[in-house]
């Protein structure tokens, strides 16, 4: 169903007189009806496609595309890649069925929920990708983006999994090859940039040389979802399909534009030139995006736009994007917009990536090239050492939670994040230069207030919301690596409290310490060993600033200064505008933050009054007293 007033009355010449490409967009609100049966929150939520659609409308780009409503997949097309059984099981999940019956079916699959509308949405998602791919193959459209859910790339021939019911992209590929030979599509390149391995798609074309499947994903030697060896680089296909399956398995999280573009430049693009596809289908999950709670990677909208642009050089630009994963609503909306702007070819791509690939990235790329060079001669050359010497060293992680723990934690905070609108997380203008430098330096962040409670502090690193009944959500740090070490210490400082609640955290209070040493008082502190980059992100968030600043609040020079002077004010002001150095531990400086006391006296008084703790007079006396007490 197309939105009223939207649909097909497009002119492709714009007001600027330039002619644009005919870009198809599929959006159908019906796919929002697939949801958890009891209203629990889940990262794969209806708002995912809504926010993308709204973003495209607000930016004025959907109006310049051909908008198609969803269309239902036919059983016989689904059966090109799925078993008859699987198609009929999904079909049977009708509205009439009771929730407990569906829950039983869902529980037999891995990471699947079902409600009365899941079946309809699944048929629409697959059918929509088929229809869009058909129109692009026919030449009626130049390219397009199917904003669909449930996603598809984990779905296997006889099994739903990983939030996927039908393998939308695989169905579309097989449809073109097997059902529409007259369209002349003989070779299809499927690119899967979702942060997870496209295990389903790999299986479906394992022995098929007509489909070159390329998946780049977080793998971590088989520890990342969907765990196991399927996503390994030595999985190259079999029989006639040998060499037509390419996996680029990241060994670590935090991969960003530099890593992905290196995989493009040194694997995908040379192979695509040799393969020379007739059309490209893109499993476009946006869960490798910066800010994604499940992916833990850092691809920016700029990064996605460059990757897409490079693919548009093939198959005369015939490319079809189908949404897969992507769970940070803001990130997926911005990344999608960046991609549609590339499809429209309406302006040069803007942005830059200054970072280098990780050392592990070069290792993976070299291993893939070596393995695949037997099939793709362009991969045979050894990469020059000048090139691979340009790398970001991997920090040594002393304590890190296991993958599943990390993901469980992410799932946990997500139930809030999917509901609440994450506060303006600007991901499109990331300056990485200062981050690169500060990410190599560790500090202890000594917390004395609510951040002593680890889950609460972790929100500043990993994003999320802890205090219940509060609208604000933290975006977290750019680098979501958990603290490398945690320990407790006591310091000779006075601890006192102001405000029983704050805008960011709601009820829970805000604690201060007096920055002057007071040997009579002992303040217990929890020390988190994090990078100086992360410390800046904590500072940004504690002071109500955005984390995408192109300069740090607290750089290396300031660090030196505070080690010497003990305490310094930050230029930007804000709540915790005073940084205090409490000494060193393992030769790493211990830093904490506290407000400059006079400047905040009034705010604290107001907090105490609003919190009903003290009358105004009493609060004034209390603060005066605390400030004037001899130390
Ligand atoms: N500890 C897509 O992005 N996570 N699917 C399960 C179990 C499942 C992701 C975690 C992630 C599925 C399309
Ligand atoms: Zn994914």
TrEMBL record:
The keyword Transcription applies. It is an enzyme of class 3 (hydrolase). One of its GO terms (biological process) is regulation of developmental process. Its main location: nucleus. It is found in: Nucleus. Keywords: Chromatin regulator, Hydrolase, Metal-binding, Nucleus, Repressor, Transcription, Transcription regulation, Zinc. It catalyses: N(6)-acetyl-L-lysyl-[histone] + H2O = L-lysyl-[histone] + acetate. The keyword Flavoprotein does not apply. GO terms for molecular function: histone deacetylase activity, hydrolytic mechanism; metal ion binding. PANTHER family: HISTONE DEACETYLASE 18-RELATED, HISTONE DEACETYLASE HDAC1-RELATED. This is histone deacetylase. It comes from Brassica carinata.
């Amino acid at each position: 169903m197309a939105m009223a007033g939207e649909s097909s009355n497009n002119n492709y010449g714009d007001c600027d007189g330039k002619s644009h490409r005919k870009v198809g967009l599929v959006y159908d609100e019906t796919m929002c009806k697939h949801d958890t049966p009891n209203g629990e929150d889940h990262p794969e939520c209806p708002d995912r496609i809504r926010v993308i659609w709204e973003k495209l409308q607000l930016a004025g780009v959907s109006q310049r595309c051909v908008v198609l409503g969803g269309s239902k997949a036919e059983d016989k097309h689904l059966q090109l890649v799925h078993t008859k059984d699987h198609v009929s099981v999904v079909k049977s999940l009708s509205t009439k069925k009771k929730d407990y019956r569906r829950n039983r079916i869902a529980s037999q699959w891995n990471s699947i929920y079902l409600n009365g509308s899941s079946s309809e949405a699944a048929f629409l998602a697959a059918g929509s990708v088929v229809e869009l791919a058909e129109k692009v193959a026919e030449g009626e459209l130049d390219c397009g983006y199917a904003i669909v859910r449930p996603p598809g790339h984990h779905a296997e021939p006889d099994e739903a999994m990983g939030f996927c019911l039908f393998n939308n992209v695989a169905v579309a590929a097989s449809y073109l090859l097997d059902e529409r030979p007259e369209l002349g599509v003989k070779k299809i390149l499927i690119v899967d940039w979702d942060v997870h391995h496209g295990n389903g798609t790999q299986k479906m074309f394992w022995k098929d040389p007509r489909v070159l499947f390329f998946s780049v994903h977080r793998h971590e030697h088989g520890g990342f979802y969907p765990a196991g060896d399927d996503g390994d680089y030595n999985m190259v296909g079999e029989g006639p399909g040998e060499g037509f399956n390419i996996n680029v398995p990241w060994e670590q999280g935090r991969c960003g534009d530099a890593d992905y573009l290196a995989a493009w430049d040194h694997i995908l693009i040379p192979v695509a030139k040799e393969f020379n596809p007739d059309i490209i289908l893109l499993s476009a999950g946006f869960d490798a995006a910066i800010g994604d709670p499940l992916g833990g990677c850092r691809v920016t909208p700029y990064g996605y736009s460059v990757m897409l642009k490079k693919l548009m050089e093939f198959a005369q630009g015939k490319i079809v994007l189908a949404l897969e994963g992507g769970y940070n609503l803001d990130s997926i909306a911005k990344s999608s917009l960046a991609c549609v702007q590339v499809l429209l070819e309406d302006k040069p791509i803007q942005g830059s990536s200054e970072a280098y690939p990780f050392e592990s990235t070069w290792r993976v790329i070299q291993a893939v090239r070596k393995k695949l060079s037997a099939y793709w001669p362009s991969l045979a050359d050894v990469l020059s050492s000048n090139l691979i010497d340009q790398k970001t060293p991997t920090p040594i992680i002393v304590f890190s939670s296991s993958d599943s723990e990390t993901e469980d934690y992410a799932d946990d905070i997500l139930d809030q994040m999917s509901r609440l609108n994450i506060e303006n997380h600007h991901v499109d203008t990331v300056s990485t230069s200062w981050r690169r430098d500060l990410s190599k330096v560790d500090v202890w962040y000594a917390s004395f207030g609510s951040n002593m409670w680890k889950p609460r502090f972790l929100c500043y690193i990993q994003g999320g919301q802890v205090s219940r009944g509060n609208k604000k959500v933290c975006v977290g740090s750019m680098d979501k690596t958990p603290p490398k070490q945690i320990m407790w210490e006591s310091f000779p400082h006075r601890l006192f409290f102001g405000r029983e609640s704050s805008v960011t955290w709601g009820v829970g209070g805000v604690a201060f310490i007096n920055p002057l040493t007071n040997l009579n008082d002992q303040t217990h502190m929890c020390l988190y060993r994090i990078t100086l980059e992360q410390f800046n992100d904590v500072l940004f968030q504690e002071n109500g600033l955005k984390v995408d600043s192109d300069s740090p609040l607290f750089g290396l020079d300031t660090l030196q200064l505070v080690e010497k002077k003990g305490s310094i004010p930050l230029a930007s002001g804000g709540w915790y505008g005073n940084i205090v150095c409490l000494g060193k531990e393992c030769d790493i400086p211990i830093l904490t933050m506290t407000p400059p006391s006079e400047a905040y006296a009034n705010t604290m008084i107001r907090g105490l009054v609003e919190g009903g703790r003290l009358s105004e007079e009493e609060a004034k006396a209390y603060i005066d007293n605390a400030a004037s007490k001899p130390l």
